[in-house]
Design brief:
Blueprint (H helix, E strand, L loop, with lengths): L8 H8 L6 E8 L4 E8 L6 E2 L7 E6 L22 E6 L4 E3 L1
Antiparallel strand pairs: 1-2, 2-4, 3-4, 4-5, 5-6
């Protein structure tokens, strides 16, 4: 949907609107030797916020199925599920992102 949105303008405008439709983000990771993919969902109930740690960047809250919210019924043998909130940090000036 936002494949060629190099400065994230359309994506940020969509997330700042009152459109509750969920969005899935595919993250492709390449470390020079191997490639990996991971999918996360943007929590569209929350608007993007300016990132206090990175001036000019925006934080987009995500739901990561590899780190779901803990509850009393969830067994967490490896400590993966209690990592806290997940965010995608977008830099509109450079087109870079960080997860």
């Amino acid at each position: 949907m936002f494949v060629n949105d190099a400065t994230y303008g359309d994506l940020l405008a969509h997330l700042n609107s009152f459109n509750p439709n969920p969005l899935i983000v595919e993250l492709e990771i390449w470390d020079g030797l191997s490639r990996g993919d991971h999918a996360v969902a943007i929590e569209t109930s929350q608007k993007p916020m300016k990132d206090p740690d990175f001036p000019g960047c925006y934080r987009v809250k995500l739901y990561d199925p590899n780190a779901p919210k803990p509850n009393n019924d969830l067994v967490d043998p490896h400590g993966w599920y209690n990592q806290g909130d997940s965010y995608l940090v977008l830099n509109p000036a450079t087109g870079e992102w960080q997860y």
